[in-house]
Protein backbone atom coordinates (compact mmCIF):
# COMPACT_ATOMS: atom_id res chain seq x y z
CA UNK A 1 0.00 0.00 0.00
CA UNK A 2 2.86 2.37 0.82
CA UNK A 3 4.49 1.70 -2.55
CA UNK A 4 1.20 2.42 -4.31
CA UNK A 5 0.79 5.76 -2.57
CA UNK A 6 4.42 6.71 -3.20
CA UNK A 7 4.15 5.72 -6.86
CA UNK A 8 1.04 7.88 -7.13
CA UNK A 9 2.82 10.88 -5.64
CA UNK A 10 6.26 10.16 -7.13
CA UNK A 11 6.01 8.12 -10.36
CA UNK A 12 9.65 7.01 -10.32
CA UNK A 13 8.90 4.81 -7.30
CA UNK A 14 7.79 1.33 -8.27
CA UNK A 15 8.68 1.70 -11.94
CA UNK A 16 5.21 2.80 -13.08
CA UNK A 17 6.54 5.32 -15.57
CA UNK A 18 3.31 5.52 -17.62
CA UNK A 19 1.08 6.20 -14.61
CA UNK A 20 0.82 9.95 -13.90
CA UNK A 21 1.44 11.12 -10.38
CA UNK A 22 -1.27 12.66 -8.24
CA UNK A 23 0.53 16.00 -8.33
CA UNK A 24 0.55 16.07 -12.12
CA UNK A 25 -3.15 15.31 -12.37
CA UNK A 26 -4.05 17.79 -9.63
CA UNK A 27 -1.98 20.47 -11.34
CA UNK A 28 -3.70 19.87 -14.68
CA UNK A 29 -7.13 19.96 -13.03
CA UNK A 30 -6.38 23.18 -11.11
CA UNK A 31 -5.01 24.86 -14.24
CA UNK A 32 -8.15 24.01 -16.20
CA UNK A 33 -10.44 25.09 -13.35
CA UNK A 34 -8.70 28.46 -12.99
CA UNK A 35 -9.49 29.70 -16.50
CA UNK A 36 -13.21 30.38 -16.00
CA UNK A 37 -13.04 32.43 -12.73
CA UNK A 38 -10.08 34.44 -14.07
CA UNK A 39 -11.94 35.40 -17.25
CA UNK A 40 -15.08 36.11 -15.20
CA UNK A 41 -13.16 38.55 -12.98
CA UNK A 42 -11.66 40.35 -15.99
CA UNK A 43 -15.06 40.66 -17.67
CA UNK A 44 -16.65 42.04 -14.49
CA UNK A 45 -13.96 44.73 -14.24
CA UNK A 46 -14.33 45.66 -17.91
CA UNK A 47 -18.13 45.92 -17.70
CA UNK A 48 -17.93 48.11 -14.60
CA UNK A 49 -15.35 50.47 -16.08
CA UNK A 50 -16.71 50.50 -19.63
CA UNK A 51 -20.52 50.27 -19.47
CA UNK A 52 -20.84 51.11 -23.17
CA UNK A 53 -19.25 47.74 -23.96
CA UNK A 54 -21.70 45.75 -21.88
CA UNK A 55 -23.94 44.91 -24.83
CA UNK A 56 -21.08 42.82 -26.24
CA UNK A 57 -19.27 41.77 -23.08
CA UNK A 58 -22.41 40.36 -21.44
CA UNK A 59 -22.25 37.44 -23.89
CA UNK A 60 -18.79 36.39 -22.72
CA UNK A 61 -19.92 33.05 -21.14
CA UNK A 62 -21.22 31.75 -24.47
CA UNK A 63 -18.19 33.10 -26.33
CA UNK A 64 -15.77 31.55 -23.85
CA UNK A 65 -17.59 28.21 -24.01
CA UNK A 66 -17.35 28.21 -27.81
CA UNK A 67 -13.67 29.18 -27.69
CA UNK A 68 -12.89 26.45 -25.15
CA UNK A 69 -14.73 23.89 -27.26
CA UNK A 70 -12.71 24.89 -30.32
CA UNK A 71 -9.37 24.83 -28.50
CA UNK A 72 -10.10 21.60 -26.64
CA UNK A 73 -11.25 19.92 -29.86
CA UNK A 74 -7.96 20.86 -31.52
CA UNK A 75 -5.97 19.64 -28.52
CA UNK A 76 -7.89 16.36 -28.21
CA UNK A 77 -7.58 15.69 -31.95
CA UNK A 78 -3.87 16.47 -32.23
CA UNK A 79 -2.53 15.47 -28.81
CA UNK A 80 -5.22 13.17 -27.31
CA UNK A 81 -5.31 15.46 -24.27
CA UNK A 82 -6.88 18.66 -23.04
CA UNK A 83 -4.77 21.80 -23.12
CA UNK A 84 -3.88 21.56 -19.43
CA UNK A 85 -3.18 17.82 -19.66
CA UNK A 86 -0.95 18.35 -22.70
CA UNK A 87 0.93 21.05 -20.80
CA UNK A 88 1.78 18.53 -18.06
CA UNK A 89 2.86 15.88 -20.59
CA UNK A 90 -0.24 13.70 -20.23
CA UNK A 91 -2.57 12.14 -22.76
CA UNK A 92 -5.83 10.21 -22.78
CA UNK A 93 -6.42 6.67 -23.89
CA UNK A 94 -9.29 4.23 -23.75
CA UNK A 95 -9.41 1.93 -20.74
CA UNK A 96 -10.06 -0.95 -23.17
CA UNK A 97 -6.34 -0.83 -24.08
CA UNK A 98 -5.46 -1.40 -20.45
CA UNK A 99 -7.26 -4.73 -20.55
CA UNK A 100 -4.87 -5.93 -23.28
CA UNK A 101 -1.72 -5.06 -21.35
CA UNK A 102 0.19 -7.90 -19.76
CA UNK A 103 -1.73 -10.67 -21.58
CA UNK A 104 0.58 -11.65 -24.41
CA UNK A 105 3.30 -10.31 -26.66
CA UNK A 106 0.81 -10.00 -29.53
CA UNK A 107 -1.52 -7.91 -27.39
CA UNK A 108 1.33 -5.62 -26.37
CA UNK A 109 2.29 -5.15 -30.02
CA UNK A 110 -1.33 -4.35 -30.82
CA UNK A 111 -1.45 -1.72 -28.09
CA UNK A 112 1.84 -0.19 -29.25
CA UNK A 113 0.60 -0.04 -32.85
CA UNK A 114 -2.65 1.64 -31.82
CA UNK A 115 -0.72 4.20 -29.78
CA UNK A 116 1.64 4.94 -32.66
CA UNK A 117 -1.30 5.42 -35.03
CA UNK A 118 -3.11 7.61 -32.51
CA UNK A 119 -6.19 5.37 -32.49
CA UNK A 120 -6.41 5.05 -28.71
CA UNK A 121 -9.61 7.10 -28.39
CA UNK A 122 -12.88 6.41 -30.18
CA UNK A 123 -14.80 9.18 -31.91
CA UNK A 124 -17.43 9.05 -29.18
CA UNK A 125 -14.81 9.42 -26.46
CA UNK A 126 -13.27 12.42 -28.22
CA UNK A 127 -16.66 14.11 -28.64
CA UNK A 128 -17.65 13.52 -25.02
CA UNK A 129 -14.25 14.75 -23.82
CA UNK A 130 -14.63 18.04 -25.71
CA UNK A 131 -18.22 18.43 -24.51
CA UNK A 132 -17.29 17.96 -20.85
CA UNK A 133 -14.17 20.12 -21.02
CA UNK A 134 -16.07 23.06 -22.51
CA UNK A 135 -19.43 22.85 -20.68
CA UNK A 136 -18.49 21.61 -17.21
CA UNK A 137 -16.76 24.86 -16.05
CA UNK A 138 -19.82 26.89 -17.07
CA UNK A 139 -22.23 24.54 -15.28
CA UNK A 140 -20.13 24.56 -12.09
CA UNK A 141 -19.96 28.35 -12.13
CA UNK A 142 -23.73 28.63 -12.54
CA UNK A 143 -24.33 26.17 -9.70
CA UNK A 144 -22.21 28.30 -7.36
CA UNK A 145 -24.09 31.45 -8.28
CA UNK A 146 -27.56 29.94 -7.80
CA UNK A 147 -26.91 27.74 -4.79
CA UNK A 148 -28.60 30.12 -2.35
CA UNK A 149 -31.76 30.31 -4.51
CA UNK A 150 -32.21 26.65 -5.35
CA UNK A 151 -31.22 24.19 -2.67
CA UNK A 152 -31.27 21.15 -4.93
CA UNK A 153 -28.66 22.77 -7.19
CA UNK A 154 -26.44 23.35 -4.17
CA UNK A 155 -26.95 19.73 -3.06
CA UNK A 156 -26.01 18.44 -6.50
CA UNK A 157 -22.87 20.57 -6.52
CA UNK A 158 -21.85 19.33 -3.07
CA UNK A 159 -22.53 15.76 -4.16
CA UNK A 160 -20.35 16.19 -7.24
CA UNK A 161 -17.51 17.59 -5.11
CA UNK A 162 -17.76 14.60 -2.75
CA UNK A 163 -17.80 12.04 -5.57
CA UNK A 164 -14.91 13.77 -7.32
CA UNK A 165 -12.88 13.71 -4.09
CA UNK A 166 -13.65 10.00 -3.67
CA UNK A 167 -12.33 9.26 -7.17
CA UNK A 168 -9.13 11.18 -6.46
CA UNK A 169 -8.57 9.25 -3.24
CA UNK A 170 -9.24 6.00 -5.10
CA UNK A 171 -6.65 6.93 -7.71
CA UNK A 172 -4.12 7.88 -5.03
CA UNK A 173 -4.58 4.50 -3.32
CA UNK A 174 -4.38 2.60 -6.61
CA UNK A 175 -7.97 1.34 -6.34
CA UNK A 176 -9.15 2.88 -9.60
CA UNK A 177 -7.44 3.99 -12.84
CA UNK A 178 -9.93 6.85 -13.20
CA UNK A 179 -9.10 10.35 -12.04
CA UNK A 180 -12.67 11.68 -12.16
CA UNK A 181 -16.22 10.29 -12.42
CA UNK A 182 -16.61 11.75 -15.91
CA UNK A 183 -13.54 9.88 -17.15
CA UNK A 184 -15.09 6.73 -15.70
CA UNK A 185 -18.31 7.55 -17.53
CA UNK A 186 -16.65 7.80 -20.95
CA UNK A 187 -14.11 5.03 -20.28
CA UNK A 188 -10.92 7.11 -20.48
CA UNK A 189 -7.80 7.18 -18.33
CA UNK A 190 -4.79 9.50 -18.28
CA UNK A 191 -1.27 8.23 -18.99
CA UNK A 192 2.09 9.91 -19.26
CA UNK A 193 3.45 10.53 -22.73
CA UNK A 194 6.34 8.37 -23.85
CA UNK A 195 9.61 9.81 -25.06
CA UNK A 196 8.51 9.54 -28.68
CA UNK A 197 5.24 11.32 -27.95
CA UNK A 198 6.72 14.09 -25.81
CA UNK A 199 5.49 17.50 -26.96
CA UNK A 200 7.93 19.61 -28.93
CA UNK A 201 8.23 23.36 -29.30
CA UNK A 202 9.88 25.15 -26.40
CA UNK A 203 8.49 28.52 -27.53
CA UNK A 204 4.94 27.32 -27.10
CA UNK A 205 5.75 25.82 -23.71
CA UNK A 206 7.24 29.13 -22.55
CA UNK A 207 4.05 30.89 -23.64
CA UNK A 208 1.96 28.35 -21.76
CA UNK A 209 4.07 28.85 -18.66
CA UNK A 210 3.37 32.60 -18.85
CA UNK A 211 -0.36 31.88 -19.11
CA UNK A 212 -0.14 29.54 -16.13
CA UNK A 213 1.56 32.18 -14.00
CA UNK A 214 -1.01 34.78 -15.11
CA UNK A 215 -3.91 32.52 -14.12
CA UNK A 216 -2.31 31.65 -10.79
CA UNK A 217 -1.66 35.33 -10.08
CA UNK A 218 -5.28 36.13 -10.89
CA UNK A 219 -6.51 33.43 -8.50
CA UNK A 220 -4.19 34.69 -5.76
CA UNK A 221 -5.25 38.31 -6.25
CA UNK A 222 -8.97 37.48 -6.12
CA UNK A 223 -8.47 35.57 -2.87
CA UNK A 224 -6.43 38.24 -1.05
CA UNK A 225 -7.56 41.56 -2.54
CA UNK A 226 -9.91 42.33 0.37
CA UNK A 227 -7.16 41.74 2.94
CA UNK A 228 -4.70 43.80 0.89
CA UNK A 229 -7.08 46.75 0.91
CA UNK A 230 -7.61 46.53 4.67
CA UNK A 231 -3.86 46.33 5.32
CA UNK A 232 -3.25 49.35 3.10
CA UNK A 233 -5.62 51.41 5.26
CA UNK A 234 -4.11 50.31 8.59
CA UNK A 235 -2.47 53.11 10.55
CA UNK A 236 -4.06 55.86 8.51
CA UNK A 237 -6.23 58.39 10.32
CA UNK A 238 -9.87 58.15 9.43
CA UNK A 239 -11.13 61.36 7.90
CA UNK A 240 -14.87 61.88 7.74
CA UNK A 241 -15.43 63.75 4.51
CA UNK A 242 -18.88 65.37 4.37
CA UNK A 243 -20.94 64.34 1.36
CA UNK A 244 -21.28 66.96 -1.37
CA UNK A 245 -24.50 68.87 -1.69
CA UNK A 246 -27.00 67.02 -3.84
CA UNK A 247 -27.91 68.98 -6.98
CA UNK A 248 -31.48 70.16 -7.21
CA UNK A 249 -33.77 68.45 -9.73
CA UNK A 250 -34.58 70.39 -12.85
CA UNK A 251 -38.13 71.55 -13.42
CA UNK A 252 -40.49 69.83 -15.81
CA UNK A 253 -40.23 72.82 -18.18
CA UNK A 254 -36.50 72.18 -18.47
CA UNK A 255 -37.05 68.47 -19.17
CA UNK A 256 -36.53 67.12 -15.65
CA UNK A 257 -38.39 63.92 -14.76
CA UNK A 258 -38.70 64.70 -11.06
CA UNK A 259 -37.98 62.48 -8.08
CA UNK A 260 -40.30 59.71 -6.82
CA UNK A 261 -41.34 59.58 -3.16
CA UNK A 262 -39.97 56.05 -2.74
CA UNK A 263 -36.18 56.06 -3.04
CA UNK A 264 -36.26 52.48 -4.36
CA UNK A 265 -38.15 53.59 -7.47
CA UNK A 266 -36.41 54.63 -10.69
CA UNK A 267 -37.13 58.31 -11.56
CA UNK A 268 -37.49 57.46 -15.28
CA UNK A 269 -39.76 54.40 -15.43
CA UNK A 270 -41.37 54.94 -11.99
CA UNK A 271 -40.93 51.27 -11.14
CA UNK A 272 -38.75 49.51 -8.61
CA UNK A 273 -35.15 49.76 -9.76
CA UNK A 274 -33.79 46.82 -11.69
CA UNK A 275 -30.04 46.49 -12.26
CA UNK A 276 -29.28 49.87 -10.61
CA UNK A 277 -26.81 52.41 -11.93
CA UNK A 278 -25.81 55.84 -10.65
CA UNK A 279 -25.14 59.02 -12.58
CA UNK A 280 -21.64 60.28 -11.80
CA UNK A 281 -22.65 63.90 -12.43
CA UNK A 282 -25.68 64.01 -10.12
CA UNK A 283 -25.51 61.03 -7.77
CA UNK A 284 -29.09 59.91 -8.49
CA UNK A 285 -29.75 56.20 -9.03
CA UNK A 286 -31.79 54.77 -11.91
CA UNK A 287 -32.36 51.50 -13.68
CA UNK A 288 -29.29 50.85 -15.79
CA UNK A 289 -31.31 50.41 -18.98
CA UNK A 290 -33.39 53.55 -18.32
CA UNK A 291 -30.34 55.70 -17.67
CA UNK A 292 -28.48 54.42 -20.73
CA UNK A 293 -31.46 55.10 -23.01
CA UNK A 294 -31.92 58.61 -21.58
CA UNK A 295 -28.25 59.53 -21.94
CA UNK A 296 -28.06 58.17 -25.47
CA UNK A 297 -31.19 60.09 -26.42
CA UNK A 298 -30.58 63.48 -24.79
CA UNK A 299 -27.00 63.46 -23.50
CA UNK A 300 -28.26 64.73 -20.13
CA UNK A 301 -28.98 63.43 -16.66
CA UNK A 302 -32.76 62.77 -16.50
CA UNK A 303 -33.31 64.46 -13.11
CA UNK A 304 -30.92 67.43 -13.14
CA UNK A 305 -30.54 67.82 -16.92
CA UNK A 306 -26.78 68.15 -16.46
CA UNK A 307 -24.70 67.23 -19.49
CA UNK A 308 -23.27 63.73 -19.16
CA UNK A 309 -21.76 60.95 -21.23
CA UNK A 310 -22.44 57.24 -21.22
CA UNK A 311 -19.01 56.64 -19.67
CA UNK A 312 -20.24 58.47 -16.55
CA UNK A 313 -22.79 55.75 -15.79
CA UNK A 314 -21.61 53.58 -12.90
CA UNK A 315 -23.08 50.18 -12.16
CA UNK A 316 -24.16 49.40 -8.59
CA UNK A 317 -24.45 46.08 -6.78
CA UNK A 318 -27.22 46.21 -4.21
CA UNK A 319 -27.27 43.57 -1.39
UniProtKB/TrEMBL annotation:
Involved pathway(s): Protein modification; protein ubiquitination
Membrane association type: Multi-pass membrane protein
A Pfam family the protein falls into: Pex2_Pex12
One biological process term in Gene Ontology: protein monoubiquitination
A Gene Ontology cellular-component term: peroxisomal membrane
Subcellular location: Peroxisome membrane
Keyword Magnesium included in the entry's annotation: no
Keyword Zinc-finger: yes
Molecular function terms, GO-annotated: ubiquitin-protein transferase activity; zinc ion binding
Pex N-terminal domain: residues covered: 31-210
Cross-referenced InterPro entries: PEX12 (IPR017375), Pex_N (IPR006845), Znf_RING/FYVE/PHD (IPR013083)
Record's keyword terms, sorted: Membrane, Metal-binding, Peroxisome, Protein transport, Transmembrane, Transmembrane helix, Transport, Zinc, Zinc-finger
Protein origin, superkingdom: Eukaryota
Protein family: Belongs to the pex2/pex10/pex12 family.
Protein name as catalogued: Peroxin-12
Organism: Perkinsus olseni
Name of encoding gene: Pex12
Amino acid sequence: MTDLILSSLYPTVGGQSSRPSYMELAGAADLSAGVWPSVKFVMAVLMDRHPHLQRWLKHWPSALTFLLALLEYTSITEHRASMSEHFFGLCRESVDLRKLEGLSAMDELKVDRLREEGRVLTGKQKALSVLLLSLLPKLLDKSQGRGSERQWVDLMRRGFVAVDAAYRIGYLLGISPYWSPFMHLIGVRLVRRTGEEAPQGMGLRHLLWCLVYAIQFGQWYMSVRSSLRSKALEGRPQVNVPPPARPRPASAKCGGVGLPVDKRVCPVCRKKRNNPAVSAVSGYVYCYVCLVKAVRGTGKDPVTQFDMREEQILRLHEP
